[in-house]
Amino acid sequence: MTTKPRTLLQDAAGIRGKALDAAAAILAEQGVEALNLRAIAEMAGIGLASIYHYFENKEALLVSLALMGLEDLRRDILDYQQRPEFLSPMRGGARAFFHFVETRPELFSLMLGERLLSRHSELREAEYRMFEAYKAAVMADDRIPQARRENAAHALWALGRGMAAIIASYPAGQRPTDVMAKLSAGAAWLIDRPD
Asked: Under a CB-based contact definition with an 8 Å cutoff, are residues 110 and 123 in contact?
């Protein structure tokens, strides 16, 4: 039996992918402070030189990881908007956003942290694409007057980002139940309130 030889592109994607998967695992389990290229190489089972071949430095790897997270969240927002159990696209998009924050707080903080966003325009562009996915749901909501939908989308987005920053900032996911309940109830009222 003959096996097809791997192409250089497949090898690159494999090594790059392994490095990003390892970085994501370390980030989720130990936080951004534990991320270093040597630990990533060790967890991925690849040589440190291989990482430097695909990523100029640690920041380049973090930007790639953040871009992947932003795209995952954008796709989730679009997917949840279509799910009938959320009753409205706006509610589905919001649920996708907060589900991501609750389940992947370290990655969320990396993706939308000012440290990387302020230095990398490609992250700001990816964030804007993610916002556009949510804005589409707000623009389709008949409860909001047509002339106010775009402004409402921006305001809800800013509010959601602020709430998400609060949620993601509690150490080890130890969020106070009363704070979470109030944030959740307030957001639900704003998103679901009747005419």
From this structure: no
